[in-house]
Specification:
Elements (H helix, E strand, L loop, with lengths): L2 H5 L2 E5 L3 H12 L15 E3 L5 E5 L5 H6 L5 E5 H10 L4 E6 L5 E8 L4 H6 L4 E5 L2 H11 L3 E5 L6 H4 L5 E6 L3 H5 L2 E10 L1 E6 H6 L1 H17 L2
Parallel strand pairs: 1-3, 1-4, 7-8, 7-9
Antiparallel strand pairs: 2-3, 4-11, 5-11, 6-9, 6-10
The structure holds adenosine-5'-triphosphate and magnesium ion.
Amino acid sequence: MSPASLERPLTLALSKGRIFDETMPLLAAAGIQVPENPETSRKLILPTSSPNLQLIIVRATDVPTYVQYGAADFGIAGKDVLVEHAAEHPGGLYQPIDLNIARCRLCVAVPVGFDYEAAVRQGSRLRIATKYVRAAREHFARKGVYVDIIKLYGSMELAPLVGLADAIVDLVSTGSTLKANKLVAVEDIAEISSRLIVNQASLKTRASALQPLIDAFARASSQDE
Ligand code: ATP
Ligand code: MG
């Protein structure tokens, strides 16, 4: 390993929004503050109060990629994102620790009044709009339901309202977005929370810097329970 890589601060990859917000208390528990807010700063590399740690701000779905290639030593990503990433890129990520943040459920939701149970019983072929293609495909395969999956990148709630799909597979926390669009969750697929993922090489070569942070995160997140 080159001396330069030993001196570079540890890099933690995060997405802005709820994961950033809910990670701040975990960093605080490790004695680390972040002076700048990614919502207002345009910087994509944020220093922290520790000279040994910097943050990079990336799209939620890109966090595993930065960590897998070692551009970030570790990162925080939802289980939803990790499942989809693992399908496309087997191996390469060190076993995640559940941080118990950004908790929600992956659900099947349908328009209010649509009889999902009857459609399933009758063996109807269902059109499902989702960002979570792999999780959705596995769920319906387990149930023995024939589905056509339509991949979307956001605003899944719209799809059943305009006739693109019969149902959606999406993340739900309070259900208020579903309700605002006259949809209702009819089935839970998985409990989702965010995980700490670590680059395998970093875990070996930078253990003395990384391990205390990993331990502090694990302690702080289990105290939340
Ligand atoms: P964007 O909303 O900017 O298009 P995104 O949906 O990938 O991007 P977020 O909405 O910040 O990003 O979601 C990041 C992660 O937070 C998700 O991968 C998921 O694990 C979790 N999450 C998403 N929606 C909710 C929710 N309603 N409640 C709790 N956690 C959620
Ligand atoms: Mg979102």
